[in-house]
Design brief:
Layout lengths: L12 H17 L2 H28 L1
Helix pairs in contact: 1-2
Length: about 60
């Protein structure tokens, strides 16, 4: 039997992070604008995900 460990709530931030990585690599072969969008998306998704996890653990 598995122990009762609380799981984190579902979130869209990992998908945003993956999209940011895809745009970064796509931007490396196309144009710097796509690369910049990827970097901004990556940073925003990472910051949002970390913030959400910190608030979730703080509330427990």
């Amino acid at each position: 039997m598995l122990p009762d460990v609380p799981l984190p709530h579902p979130t869209y931030f990992p998908a945003g992070l993956a999209m940011g990585v895809a745009f970064i690599f796509w931007g490396l072969i196309t144009t710097w604008v796509v690369w910049l969008v990827g970097v901004v998306l990556f940073i925003a998704a990472l910051a949002g995900w970390i913030t959400e996890i910190r608030h979730e653990y703080k509330s427990h």
